């Protein structure tokens, strides 16, 4: 069956809703096949838990009355009719119908036939899921590769596919070998929910630190075992209930006539047994090793030694090593994983996955953040474009398509063709705002220039007035000087002439003797 599935997968081509509608529908409902596989695994394990072994469970099913059977038929029919009207709770009602159908099949067909039918449906559903997963991963889109390369990529080339092939093998072994193998399918719940994956990661992420701390705890237990073996081996007395083989059969055990006998056995006769007892009883006990050892009397010579032994074991091994170090590392790692998950969800909620712009950038804008991530930078539009590029012949590429194809085919893919921290709506608004800001700046500069011109004009007029005033003062002073000179000249002409060598004029210098 697995070989037939591989042959079908390898012969499949690229899924197209027009060329291959059946394959397209199978790939489109991949999550539905995954949910059906999980619910079938839960139903099968529920039947095993209730009715195994099936020969005894059949007697219980046969004892169901006719009224109960008719009531189940009525409830089943009512749920089937409600599927036509309860569109809001369609999935929940569908799950309820499936459960009632299984119960109805158990009553009508029996447990073993119902179990076989469910096992067969689980195998077939898992094959369909693997086929849809291969188609959704796009492994078969490149038909130029060899069949061996495709076989390797489908079987062991992908970790997720490898996990589901192992899941399918468990379904086959549980269907054909033994029913208990179906119990391992329940671990699929870890792969379905992120919270449970974080629980596993809280241990595996700091596994080295946890292992080193556990080794330190083992060393301390070994030292405490040596100390207990040397000083008080007689305190390691454990009550035991010996197995009476005569009162136990392959099906049940009956209490002996004299009751269960309790024997006190020394569990520290050898150092190895002392280590096993300290490890098994001391770590599991809430108060440490003192909860399982003999209670000493206060007058015993080693009473205080025993007191320090019990108290130090409780404080160091139980409190510090196990509760604070090991459990503390696990709890802190789980808290960090939860905070990281919340941070990622907050980032995806308030940040555009394509351009990286935050929600705050779109406040008081014409385009809201929701419209931006839905229309401008839709994640699905980019995904469809990448799938379109991968499925299109390279000879038919346009210029931009060739550029994007070269980018996404590199290892790792180059994302330079993504619009980082920009988008058309904000760029348009920013351009308009920039133009308005430039006009405002020009207007402000013009106003400033007018103010400067006015100031210079006022200063120039003031300077011109000063110059005119200065010229008037100079002219006035020149006129006064000329008048003085004219008055002086008239005065000299009106006075009599003096003797030679003398002069009354103040402007004539005296000649020295």
Description:
This protein is mainly alpha-helical and 513 residues long. It is built from 18 helices and 2 strands. The chain has helices at 2-11, 21-28, 30-51, 54-62, 66-82, 90-109, 111-137, 147-155, 159-176, 188-192, 194-204, 207-231, 271-284, 303-350, 369-376, 379-391, 399-408, 424-494, and strands spanning 237-240, 263-266. The chain has a two-stranded antiparallel ribbon with strand order 1-2. The chain is elongated, with a radius of gyration of 49 Å. The relative contact order is 0.05. Residues 6-15 and 502-513 have low confidence and may be disordered. One of its GO terms (cellular component) is membrane. Residues 170-341 form the Ion transport domain. Keywords: Coiled coil, Membrane, Receptor, Signal, Transmembrane, Transmembrane helix. Pfam families: Ion_trans. Residues 490-513 are annotated as: Disordered.
The class by helix and strand makeup works out as: mainly alpha
Shape: elongated
How big is the Rg? 49 Å
**Spatial order of the strands forming the largest sheet:** 1-2
Mean pLDDT, to the nearest integer, reads 77
Individual helix count: 18
Major sheet: size, sense and barrel closure?
2 strands, antiparallel
**SSE string, helix = H, strand = E?**
HHHHHHHHHHHHEEHHHHHH
Record field, number of beta strands: 2
Proportion of strand residues: under 5%
């Amino acid at each position: 069956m697995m070989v037939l599935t591989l042959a079908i997968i390898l012969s499949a081509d690229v899924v197209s809703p027009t060329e291959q509608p059946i394959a397209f529908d199978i790939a489109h409902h991949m999550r539905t096949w995954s949910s059906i596989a999980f619910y079938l695994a839960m139903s099968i394990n529920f039947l095993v838990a209730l009715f195994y072994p099936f020969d005894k469970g059949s007697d219980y099913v046969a004892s169901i009355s006719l009224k109960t059977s008719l009531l189940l038929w009525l409830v089943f029919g009512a749920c089937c009719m409600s599927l036509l009207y309860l569109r809001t709770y369609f999935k929940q009602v569908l799950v309820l119908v499936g459960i009632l159908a299984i119960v109805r099949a158990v009553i009508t067909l029996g447990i073993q036939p119902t179990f076989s039918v469910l096992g067969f449906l689980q195998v077939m559903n898992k094959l369909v899921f693997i086929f849809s997963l291969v188609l959704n991963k796009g492994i078969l889109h490149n038909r130029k590769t060899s069949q061996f390369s495709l076989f390797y990529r489908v079987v062991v080339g992908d970790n997720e596919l490898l996990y589901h092939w192992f899941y399918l093998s468990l379904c086959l072994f549980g269907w054909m070998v033994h029913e208990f193998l179906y119990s391992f399918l329940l671990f699929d719940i870890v792969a379905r929910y992120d919270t449970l994956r974080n629980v596993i990661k809280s241990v595996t992420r700091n596994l080295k630190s946890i292992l080193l701390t556990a080794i330190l705890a083992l060393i301390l237990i070994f030292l405490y075992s040596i100390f207990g073996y040397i000083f008080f081996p007689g305190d390691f007395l454990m009550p035991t209930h010996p197995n009476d083989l005569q009162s136990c059969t392959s099906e049940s055990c009956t209490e002996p006539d004299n009751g269960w006998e309790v024997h006190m056995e020394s569990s520290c006769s050898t150092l190895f047994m002392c280590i096993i007892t300290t490890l098994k009883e001391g770590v599991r006990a809430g108060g440490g090793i003192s909860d399982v050892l003999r209670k000493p009397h206060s007058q015993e010579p080693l009473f205080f030694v025993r007191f320090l032994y019990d108290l130090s074991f409780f404080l160091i091994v139980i409190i510090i090593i196990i509760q604070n170090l090991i459990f503390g590392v696990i709890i802190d790692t789980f808290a960090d994983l939860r905070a990281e998950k919340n941070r990622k969800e907050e980032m995806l909620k308030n940040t555009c996955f394509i351009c990286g712009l935050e929600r705050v950038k779109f406040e008081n804008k014409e385009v809201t953040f929701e419209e931006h991530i839905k229309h401008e930078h839709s994640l699905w539009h980019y995904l469809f474009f990448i799938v379109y590029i991968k499925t299109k012949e390279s000879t038919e590429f346009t210029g931009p398509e060739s550029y994007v194809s070269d980018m996404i085919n590199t290892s790792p893919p180059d994302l330079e063709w993504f619009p980082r921290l920009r988008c058309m709506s904000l760029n348009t608004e920013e351009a308009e705002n920039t133009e308005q800001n430039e006009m405002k700046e020009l207007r402000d500069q013009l106003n400033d220039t007018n103010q400067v011109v006015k100031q210079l004009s006022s200063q120039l007029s003031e300077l011109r007035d000063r110059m005119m005033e200065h010229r008037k003062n100079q002219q006035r002073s020149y006129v006064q000087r000329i008048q003085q000179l004219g008055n002086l000249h008239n005065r000299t002409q009106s006075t009599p002439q003096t003797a030679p060598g003398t002069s009354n004029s103040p402007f004539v210098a005296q000649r020295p003797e």
